[in-house]
From TrEMBL:
Keywords: DNA damage, DNA recombination, DNA repair. Residues 3-68 form the DNA replication/recombination mediator RecO N-terminal domain. GO terms for cellular component: bacterial nucleoid. This is DNA repair protein RecO.
Amino acid sequence: MYLSAPAILLAARPHGETAVIARMLTEESGVMAAYVAGGRGRQLRPVVIPGNLVEAEIRSRSDSQLPFARLELAQSRGPWLSEPLPASAIAWVCALTASALPERNPYPSLYAALAALLDAICNAPSARGWAPALASYEILLLRELGYGGERPEIAGLGAALEILDRNEAQIARYLLADTRADVLAARTVLRQRLGRIGT
């Protein structure tokens, strides 16, 4: 197997002394997990940050083997990780996507929506500009996996917060039911921070 494509880095877990296992979302191949040698080293540590857009070169000798990946940074989300609200939003959408999507199933609409949402989080002047997109992304994710209905019109922060609150039960029940990690903890932090600006 060989794949060279842009990818959104969703998660990176330490492996061995210096490597990481990275989970990435690609447009045509879906979520891919791959071994990144030196991922915790000085050169690659700024690259393997969830939310970053990378150019990924993924190779595997067989379908049963974990692929190896070489990553080059295309767009960094690092500057926004020092801002509490954007940092918690990036952490949540990446953790949710990494946990909910099955590997190697293409979801081109989710790839495009996640890329647009991350851009909005990083470029909007405040959360009022991206909170409706976040609520829409959660609904799209539920719908793409067979659990959602129609997308409602989301007018402003108040409506977005209501929809985020409604989505939580479905996300916990359907998307994260088999997940051992407490992925919803990232959502709780984000919702508390969004609540502070909504009042």
